[in-house]
Amino acid sequence: MITLNLNGKDHALDVPEDMPLLWVIRDVAGYSGTKFGCGMGLCGACTVHIDGQATRACITPISLAVGKQVITLEALHADPVGQALQAAWLELGVAQCGYCQGGQLMTATALLRGNPNPDEAQIEAAMAGNLCRCGTYNRIRAAIQVAARKLREGQA
Fold first, then answer.
1. How far is CA 12 from the centre of its chain?
2. The predicted structure's pLDDT at residue 155
3. How far apart are CA 66 and CA 88, in angstroms?
4. Alpha carbons 33 and 47: distance in angstroms, whole number
5. CA distance 136 to 143
6. Cα 122–Cα 133–Cα 54 angle in degrees, nearest 5
7. Are residues 69 and 127 in the same domain?
8. Domain named 2Fe-2S ferredoxin-type: which ranges (predicted)?
9. Considering only CA atoms, which of 17, 14, 30 is closest in space to residue 64?
10. What is the pLDDT of residue 57?
11. Side-chain half-sphere of 3: how many Cα atoms within 13 Å?
């Protein structure tokens, strides 16, 4: 048995230590916000936070998450930065198909928690590993800037 702290709750799980965290989250724990995209850590659809760091769940074995706090999209509403980003996403109509947006939001949240005032280059660098087949990159960057500004100004 492995104990995983997922979204603030401990889950006792009977899974192999090398099972990818993505499948533990989706198939065993039942959280569906974390998506399978490429299975190689290249697209970002599976991004979660492990101790606050944006991490690709599809290539991370559960053994690396034991004893750490794992946060998925389902808990993002409890984070003030996540709330500000979600509001900016809605305000600017970022999502089209929406498949990648969970990973985009998780990566953007980690960015703004570490750097509350990123410039264009820093946003571009942080978000570079997240792919969007619909091409909403300009709106994603704009939403990050809007959320950062509102957080700095105390409007979020």
1. 23
2. 84
3. 33
4. 10
5. 11
6. 40
7. no
8. 1-76
9. 17
10. 98
11. 5
pLDDT at 146: 98
Task: Find out whether 80 and 156 touch, Cβ atoms under 8 Å.
Answer: yes
Task: Please answer whether residues 101 and 138 qualify as being in contact, where contact means their C-beta atoms are separated by less than 8 angstroms.
Answer: no
Please state the pTM of the whole predicted model: 0.95
> Distance between CA 1 and CA 3 in Å, rounded?
7
Residues 129 and 87 in one domain: yes
Structural domain boundaries enclosing 117: 79-153
Q: What is the pLDDT of residues 25-82, one digit of tens each?
A: 999 999 999 999 999 999 999 999 999 999 999 999 999 999 999 999 999 999 999 9
**Do 33 and 85 belong to one domain?**
no
